[in-house]
Design a protein that fits this description.
The chain has helices at about 25-35, 50-55, 75-85, 95-105, 120-140, 175-185, 195-200, 210-220; strands spanning about 15-20, 40-45, 60-65, 90, 110-115, 150, 155, 160-165, 170, 190, 230, 235-240. The protein is of the alpha/beta class and about 240 residues long.
Length: about 240
């Protein structure tokens, strides 16, 4: 992993990274190069103590390997997302498109395939951290004016990430939540497939049938209210309220 221009040039002082990696050689190499760049790295060879540590103090980002000795990376990611929305970048030797799609859907902010360069890691970390800081700053309850969206029988709280239908809470995955937010911000408007895909899949991790699958899942969760989510043949979808 080659070195690069100093992290200090990016005006993100005092960064702390949690590294969850069971391969000691990889972990030591990453820790060394990141600490040279002025980043504090706390290494976890397994996932067992990570959640407890997160409760005490949160880092700026987490680098998460998938192949851990005590818990799968996927399960650990779900547990992390119950506690915090800080950036999580998956680092894995698994490089299929399906792996990337599933992990992004489960809440990962980015996905790096091993082996990777320090330059690429740095760019992705900085992008994720900067984006998270901007969102955190603009979406505080006091500053945000759009955290509660109501459209017909649907209510979506973007601050607490709660979705309700007819007053009943419905659990949505992160991508399903984004799709419903887009529909509810554009009620009775036909949205093309491209408009939805560009808004929800910002990093481009999408296969041709992904949108149809997600809409079908959402409809199944809406039950009797699924009639409001209409298909527009040859174009896209709309939320009719």
């Amino acid at each position: 992993m080659e070195s690069s221009k100093s992290w200090k040039d990016n005006n993100l002082p005092g960064m702390k990274i949690f590294l969850v990696e069971d391969d000691q050689v990889i972990a030591e190499n990453l820790k060394t190069v990141l600490e040279i760049e002025g980043i504090e790295v706390i290494h976890f060879p397994s996932g067992s103590n990570l959640i407890e540590k997160l409760v005490e103090k949160q880092p700026d980002a987490i680098l998460l390997d998938l192949m851990l000795p005590d818990i799968s990376g996927e399960k650990l990611l779900k547990e992390i997302r119950k506690k915090t929305d800080i950036p999580v970048i998956v680092i894995s030797a698994r490089d299929t498109e399906l792996d990337k799609v599933l992990l992004i859907e489960m809440g990962a902010d980015d996905y790096l395939t091993k082996p990777f360069s320090l330059i690429e890691l740095k760019a992705r970390l900085l992008r994720s951290i900067e984006r998270h800081r901007k969102i955190s700053k603009s979406e505080t309850k006091e500053e945000s004016e759009e955290w509660l969206i109501v459209a017909g029988p649907f209510e979506l709280n973007t601050y607490e990430h709660i979705f309700k239908v007819g007053g009943k809470s419905i659990e949505l995955t992160p991508k399903e939540f984004k799709i419903m937010e887009l529909f509810m911000r554009n009620p009775n408007r036909v949205l093309s497939r491209r408009q939805i895909e560009d808004a929800v899949w910002e990093d481009g991790y999408i296969t041709p049938k992904n949108l149809d699958v997600y809409v079908a899942r959402i409809r199944s969760k809406l039950g009797e209210f699924s009639i409001h989510l209409k298909s527009v043949r040859g174009f896209g979808y709309k939320l009719e309220v």
